[in-house]
Specification:
By secondary structure, this protein is an alpha/beta fold. It is built from 18 helices and 10 strands. It has 2 domains: 231 residues, Rossmann fold (3-Layer(aba) Sandwich); 175 residues, no CATH class. An 8-stranded mixed β-sheet has the order 1-2-4-3-5-6-9-10, sandwiched between helices. A two-stranded antiparallel sheet has the order 7-8. Helix 1 links the parallel strand 3 and strand 4. Helix 1 runs parallel beside helix 18, helix 3 crosses helix 14 and helix 4 crosses helix 5.
């Protein structure tokens, strides 16, 4: 029997949090969250905190038809959190960069925007809304990493935990992560060219042109071969291969240089992939804890995989951040020196407590996708074996965006596992 979607009520909520939770009297940030509840029956339901992907991406803006949200609203009132630095929370953007004359001070500021700080924000918000009562959490992608941090350091705040495409390697450094991901990205390239054989020649033709002629996109961004390759980040989504194929249908439009329509499409795709500056600035830092700098791990490890070099056909890269991006992208240039300092930062606070995870008592469930291009399946499964009281749904039916694309099925499966 089909259940009609609930009539939604949307409520804006703002919170003041410390930039550094260890210095509560220091600078403060505004954090925004949107409460979504069933307008007729949701006021008395328990809370579900949604932690979305990124890092550096705001919460999704509900417009109707989100199957996972409709499923959640049958059991919860949902809080969609714009994680610090994103959306309507105090933003990290060029205006912030302009306030810092010292790149080291800017880098120190940005170091407070990782999962550990996001979890402490969430705990402050929970105490404001619920007092001592725990709430449930749903973490998608990077939000799943945040959820594992939550289970590590504030499990008392959680009644249940759901994770979709977001189980990290608990002790995997950035080098280990990228050594696992490059082969998965290569497999996605091979699968794409098997589906769309003509795309191999078209992509190679574009790369040959870019090696000989400078090209500037409408945004002012320089289109190099490396920037063109980064379009492969879309391949991990359910419709990513199709989108890339349509982008490559006719790059030259019968001429001898890339058409304006093609360049505009590339520009839009690169903007969609990059998101806000935090995505690029802290991407490798999401894998950093303890001693040891990341030192542009994706860039260094790439040399171990020659298929992503000058070989033909051209192979697209995936969710990797490279140092050249901070010179080529106008939105990232103000952060260039700070980005290099973050990459060289010698130590980072721990993000996970393995001993506590082994003794976890919070009911939890996670979806692990067989063909996930963004989080290595084997690292995720090793983590799943470590976290006590965690049920795993391992599936090849959906890809990394299964929560959004499954019309509520993924969340429903996890709720069934948590509730036995």
């Amino acid at each position: 029997m089909l259940v009609p979607p609930p009539r939604r009520a949307l409520i804006d909520r703002f919170f003041s949090v410390p930039l550094d939770h260890d210095r509560p009297d220091g600078p403060r940030l505004r954090v925004y969250a949107r409460e979504v509840r069933d307008a007729d029956h949701g006021r008395d339901l328990p809370w579900l905190l949604f932690l979305g992907g990124g890092p550096g991406s705001p919460a999704p803006r509900p417009s109707g038809g989100e199957g996972w949200l409709d499923r959640a609203l049958r059991d919860y009132r949902v809080l969609l959190l714009d994680q610090r630095g994103t959306g309507r929370s105090t933003p990290v953007d060029r205006r912030l960069a302009a306030r810092f004359r010292d790149p080291a001070a800017l880098a120190d500021h940005l170091a407070h925007f990782r999962a550990d700080a996001i979890v402490r924000d969430a705990e402050l918000i929970r105490r404001t809304l619920l007092g001592d009562r725990p709430w449930s959490v749903l973490g998608q992608s990077f939000g799943g990493l945040c959820t594992v941090t939550y289970l590590s350091f504030a499990p008392h705040g959680l009644a249940e935990a759901y994770i979709t495409g977001g189980l990290p390697g608990l002790d995997a450094d950035a080098d280990t992560v990228y050594r696992a991901l490059y082969p998965r990205v290569a497999a996605e390239n091979a699968a794409h060219y098997a589906r769309h054989p003509d795309d191999a020649d078209r992509a190679t033709e574009v790369a040959r042109f870019l090696r000989t002629r400078p090209v500037t996109l409408p945004s002012g961004r320089r289109l190099t071969v490396e920037a063109f390759q980064s379009l492969g980040n879309m391949l991990g989504g359910s419709d990513g291969s199709t989108r890339l194929h349509y982008l490559l249908e006719d790059p030259f439009a019968g001429g001898d240089e890339p058409s304006d329509a093609f360049l505009s499409g590339v520009d839009r795709a690169l903007s969609d992939i990059a998101g806000g500056p935090l995505y690029s600035l802290l991407h490798e830092a999401t894998y950093a804890q303890g001693e040891g700098a990341t030192r542009w791990a994706a860039h260094r490890v790439r040399t171990e995989f020659p298929a992503f070099g000058v070989a033909e056909p051209l192979f697209f890269t995936g969710e990797m951040i490279y140092p050249w991006m901070f010179g080529a992208d106008p939105a990232l240039r103000p952060f260039r020196e700070a980005a290099h300092l973050l990459a060289g930062r010698p130590s980072w606070p721990a993000l996970y407590d393995v001993a506590r995870l082994r003794a976890n008592t919070v009911p939890a469930a996670a979806a692990v996708y067989e063909d996930d291009m963004y989080l290595d399946r084997d690292l995720s499964l090793a983590t799943a074996r470590t976290i006590a009281n965690l049920g795993v749904w391992r599936t090849a039916e959906y890809r990394h965006d299964g929560l959004r694309m499954s019309d509520g099925v993924v969340l429903d499966r996890l709720m069934e596992r948590v509730r036995g």
